Amino acid sequence: MKKLYRSKQQRMICGVCGGLSEYFNVDVTLVRLAFAGLSIICGGGFLAYIVAAVLIPEEGTGMEYSDTNN
Questions:
Q1: Nearest to residue 34, comparing CAs of 44, 15, 25, 51?
Q2: Alpha-carbon span 70 to 68, nearest angstrom
Q3: Which of 69, 65, 55, 61 is closest to 23 using CA atoms?
């Protein structure tokens, strides 16, 4: 079962990009570039990052979200 969380290993600021890259099984650099591109183009990447940093729990807290509705 996959769980969405902020990564402790792939962290630069809050670990949001690292957690998303592990969840979707893509390279963390691609996720970081996507956030940077959204921030430069329309400012939405910065806002999305802040919202995700608040909503997504940190790895190891026991409050990880899963991709199933059990």
A1: 44
A2: 6
A3: 65
